[in-house]
Every structure is written in structure tokens, then in C-alpha cells.
Amino acid sequence: MPVMYPYIQWQELNRQQTRIISHEAKFHEIAPYLDTGLDPVSGQPVLIDLECGVCGHHLDVPRRVSPNDYPDAPLEPLCVLPCGHMMGTHCLDHWIRRADEAWQAPTCPLCRFKLRYTKCKCQMRFREFSPLLPREQQVPLTIPEGGRVDAYCGPCRDRRSETKLREWMDEHLPANAVHGSITRVQETRLQACIGGLARSARTWHRENAPRW
Ligand SMILES: [Zn+2]
Ligand SMILES: [Zn+2]
Ligand SMILES: [Zn+2]
Q: Which phi and psi angles does 85 have, rounded to 5°?
């Protein structure tokens, strides 16, 4: 449903040649404007006015791209799925609970993208978009943007890395290494192990950008 603006506001928007995005369905179509409110190519202001495809509520976007303050209209938090589709968080939550109750695997209501990790089968955490945070701190690249979804969820990935680390330590450290009684060889292995831990901590920090 197109949004009606007061005539004065329309004039002002036209004067600034403001682009109003109101029908885009996928996140990558609005992502370039969220942090600045400007079109990076033309430099023109962009306003984003989206509605939840299920209930019609306005979706909450950062103030800098929001055309109105909607004093009376209810706002629904915007939620992004790995397939790039967006909708209201409450409606998606409701949709997923209904699928759960029917013992069905939850999918994107718009494209049927499966909202379960392929290997561990855990349910995907969906991303509620906070208008107060920059995009890169909260929404990973969506699939249309070249993003990928891991086969395991975050906690399962962590458990797997911990198991791998334990196996690595069992292999490289003697079980009877006691402080003060380790040999030169054992000490070298211990140092290597500490090095391995430091490397995995660095990798963890590097990869700690949001992931699906
Ligand atoms: Zn909704
Ligand atoms: Zn989808
Ligand atoms: Zn999992």
C-alpha cells in the first residue's frame, strides 16, 4: 500500500529529489542507504518506507531514512533472513511457532528458504534489525549479496572447535605432564599448544563479525 505524505512534505521531498523506497522486498535493496541515508552514487537523500508483508505495520528503520515518525501507527521491528527477505519480527516469530506446532521445518514465508542449519539441524536465529546499530555489526551478508550460511549454528561450531582443540591437545601433550616434572620435549609441545590456542583466539576475533 503506497504511503500518503502531506502535500508540504511531498514538495520538500521533491525539491531535494529524495528517492522513496517503499516496495523492495530484499535487504540488499535497502542496505546501501541505511547507514548514511544517501544514495552512494547520486548523493541524493533516500527514504525507506517498508511495511510488514504479513500485517501491514510499518517496519522500523533508522531515523535518518525514515520518512515519518508515525506517532500513531504501530512500528514493527524489521527482521532479515539469510535469503534477504525482510518482514516484521513479530509476524515471523508467529509464523515459526506455527510451523513448530505443526512439526514442520520453518521456512521463509516468501521463498521457502529453510530456516534450519543443514548439518546440525538447529533452527536459524533470525536477525532483528536495530535502527541504532550500523549494518555490519548486526546483519551478515545475505545470500543475494554473496553471503553464505554455515552448515552448523554458532554454538555447534563452538562445540566442534572445542572438541577439535581437545583432540589436538590429547595428541600433542602427554597425559602425565605435571608442573615441574615435564621434560624439554614436553615443554616444547606445551609451548606449541599455547601457540595453537593463541592462533585460534585470533581467528575467533577475526571471524567474530556477525554470521548466520
Ligand atoms: Zn507484521
Ligand atoms: Zn526468503
Ligand atoms: Zn546447531
A: -70, 150
7-11, 33-37, 134-138, 169-173: which has the minimum mean pLDDT? Answer: 7-11
CA–centroid distance, residue 53 to ligand 2 (Å) = 12
Compute, in angstroms, the gap from residue 141 CA to the centroid of ligand 1: 23
Which-ligand-closest: CA of 152? 3
Whether the pLDDT of residue 165 is over 50: the answer is yes
Q: Which of 145, 166, 183 is the last residue of a domain?
A: 145
Ligand nearest, relative to CA of residue 106: 2
- Name the grid cell of 176: 602425565
State the distance from the centre of ligand 2 to the C-alpha of 98, rounded, in angstroms: 17
Note the ligand closest to the C-alpha atom of 120: 3
Domains: count for the chain = 2
pTM over 0.70: yes
Cell of 60: 522500523
Q: Which residue has the higher pLDDT, 209 or 59?
A: 59
Determine the pLDDT at residue 68. Answer: 67
CA–CA separation, 86 and 96 (whole Å): 14
Q: Please tell me the distance between residue 133's alpha carbon and the centre of ligand 1 in angstroms.
A: 21
Helices 154-172 and 184-206 pack at an angle, to 10 degrees, of 170
Q: How far is the CA of 87 from the centre of ligand 3 (A)?
A: 24
Q: Which domain holds residue 112?
A: 7-145
Residues 19 and 118 placed together within one structural domain of the fold: yes
